[in-house]
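Record 1 of the preview.
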Amino acid sequence: MRQSMSNFPISFDEINSRARAQALIFLPQLLPSGKQMGREWVALNPRRPDRSLGSFRINIETGRWADFAIGAKGGDFISLAAYVLDIRQIDAAKRVAAIIGAKSP
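->
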């Protein structure tokens, strides 16, 4: 069952927008194994035994991400946090909001 955000003070869109604006603050906290390479954050995928940088990439400007080694992908920073932390989207939205300093519920 999809959880409502009616009690959440800001929308998913607003959280993602703020995360895009603070991507180079947010990404090192979520994926400290990574580094910036051009417009991408390249990191080890903590969800698998990843030993070298290269296949797990996040577009810093859009939040789109993919692990090309296994075909996992998503379209924003909330879905990235949900994937990396293995949590629900609503919980990921709260976590992203906390990292970027947005009001949390």
